[in-house]
Amino acid sequence: MSEPTTPPAPRVRSLLSPGRYVQGPGALARLGGHLADLGSTPVLVADDVVWGLVGHDVTASVQGAGLPVHRDVFRGLATAATIDRLVGVVRELGADVLVGVGGGSTLDSVKAAGHLAGIRWASVPTVASTDAPTSALAVVYTADGAFEEYRFFPRNPDLVLVDTQVVANAPAALLAAGVGDALATWLEARATAASGSTTMAGGAPTLAGTALARLSWDVLWDNALPALDAVRDHLVTPAVEKVVEANTLLSGLGFESGGLAAAHAVHNGLTAAPQAHGLAHGQKVNLGSVTQLVLEGAPTSEIRDFVEFTTRVGLPNTLTEVGLGVDDVDVLRAVAQAATVPGETIHSMPFPVRADDVVAALRSVERFSTRVRAEAGLPAPVRHVAPH
C-alpha cells in the first residue's frame, strides 16, 4: 500500500500598490504636505534638466510644508554605483525620506537606495513614459547601458505624485513611449494568466492585476491619439488624464500583479545591442510587443491592428526603427540569447521559447510591419531617435 501523498499547498496570489497615488494639474503644490506625512528630512533627487523645469515649484512646496530642501544631482542610469552613492548621501544627511523627481532611472535609483538605507521613498515622475513610478522593483543597468538585473523590494513607494501639467509640458514623444510600455501590460498579463506563472508581486496573477492590465489597454486604444494631440499643445484634457493614469497607475499595478512575459524580455535583450542604446524604454518594449504577438501566432488581424495603431502613436514596430536589420543576425542572436536566459520573463509565456524562436520572430516583423504600413498609407520605417 502506497503512502498517502501530501496535497500541494495552494498558490498564493498577491497584489501590490503604492501607499498613496496623487494625480492632476498643479499636483506639485501638494508635494510638501504629503512628504511631511512621511518624514522630516527629505532628499530630493533630480537631474539638472528636470530641476530646471520643476525645481522652483518643488522647493516652494517643500519649504511651505516646513521641510528642509536637500537636492542631490542625478546623473546617468540606475546603476549599482549610482544606488550606492545615494545611500551614502542619505546616511550623511540623516535623511528619512528619499524622493525621486524625474524619469524612470531616477525613480528606480531612489527606490533601490531607499530600500538599502532603510527609509521611506516617494516617486514624483515628471513624464508618463514608463510604469516604473508605482512598482516595488527597480531595473538596474550596467555603466554601458545594458540590462543587469531586477531588484525587488518588500514594499512599493509610499507616495506617487504626478502633476499632469508637467507631463503635458514635456515632449509628446515621451508620453508616446509610455503608451508603448503600457500597451505591453495586457499582452503580457494575458500570457501570464494563461501559463499561471509567478508575477513580479511574488505570487500567481490576481484577477485585479489582470483586469487593470486590460483596462489600461482599453483606455489607451480609446484615448492615446487625442491625448498626444493635446500634449503637443501642452494642454491637459480628460484624454490626457486618462492616458497618464493608464501609463502610470493602471500599467504599474497591471504589470506587477498581472505579470511580465516576452515583450519586456525582448526589451532587456535589446539593451545588449549598441544600436538600440539611447532609445526610450517604451520604444524598445513596443518592438517586444510585436515580437510577442508573432511568437504567440496571434491572428494576423490583431498584429496588423497593433502595427497600425502604434505607428500612429509614433512607436517603433520594425528592426529598422531601432537601428537594426534582418541581416544583423549575430546582433539579433545576442539579443535573443539575452532575452531567453534562465529567469527571464519570457519564460512566463504559456509555451517554451528558444533563442532561435526570438530571432525568427524579430526578423519576420520587419517585412510584415513594413507591408502593413504601406497598405494603410502610413510612413515607411525610419530610424527612431530617443525623445528629449
Describe the protein in words.
With 388 residues, the chain is an alpha/beta fold. The protein folds into two domains: 21-169, Rossmann fold; 172-375, Dehydroquinate synthase-like, alpha domain. The chain is 51% helix and 11% strand. Strands 1-8-5-4-2-3 form a six-stranded parallel sheet. It has a two-stranded antiparallel ribbon with strand order 6-7. Helix 3 (80-93) packs across helix 4, helix 7 (207-232) runs antiparallel to helix 8 and helix 10 (281-296) crosses helix 13. The chain is globular, with a radius of gyration of 21 Å. The relative contact order is 0.11. Its EC number is 1.1.1.6. Pfam families: Fe-ADH. Residues 18-164 form the Alcohol dehydrogenase iron-type/glycerol dehydrogenase GldA domain.
Keywords:
six-stranded parallel β-sheet; Dehydroquinate synthase-like, alpha domain; single chain; 2 domains; 13 helices; 388 residues
Mean pLDDT: 95
Give the strand tally.
8
- Radius of gyration from the alpha-carbon trace, in angstroms: 21 Å
CATH fold category name of the largest domain: Dehydroquinate synthase-like, alpha domain
Backbone shape: globular
Low-confidence stretches: none
Please describe the biggest sheet, giving its number of strands, its sense, and whether it closes into a barrel.
Answer: 6 strands, parallel
User: Percent of residues in beta strands?
Assistant: 5-15%
Supply the CATH superfamily name of the largest domain.
Dehydroquinate synthase-like - alpha domain
Helix content: 40-55%
Number of helical runs? 13
- CATH class term of the largest domain: Mainly Alpha
Distance between the termini: 71 Å
EC number: 1.1.1.6
Pathway: Polyol metabolism; glycerol fermentation; glycerone phosphate from glycerol (oxidative route): step 1/2
Protein name: Glycerol dehydrogenase
Pfam families: Fe-ADH
